[in-house]
Amino acid sequence: MSTFINPFAPERRSLPCQATAIKAWTREVLECGGDVVVSVNQLACTERGSAPQETVVLLLLPDRRSLKFSIHKALYDVTEADVVAAAQSCEEAKAAG
Q: Which domains does the chain have, with CATH numbers?
């Protein structure tokens, strides 16, 4: 793993700021109340053909259930549209199950 920081690379939002934005988008799309805990993490992705990193969003609901969805992008590359699409497919899977 390299710790080289390219001074010429375009500026990106910091990871904590991006995680906060993803949490807010998730709460908005899924209409979560204040009693729902939203956790956002970036993990290594081992699936063939996927990006090397994925962003995982976990919701801990008040009735002790949990809901999880993944976006196959690094945390700083995730957009609001990605969150909307992933959250909607997660909701569809939950409703079907």
A: 15-96 (3.30.160)
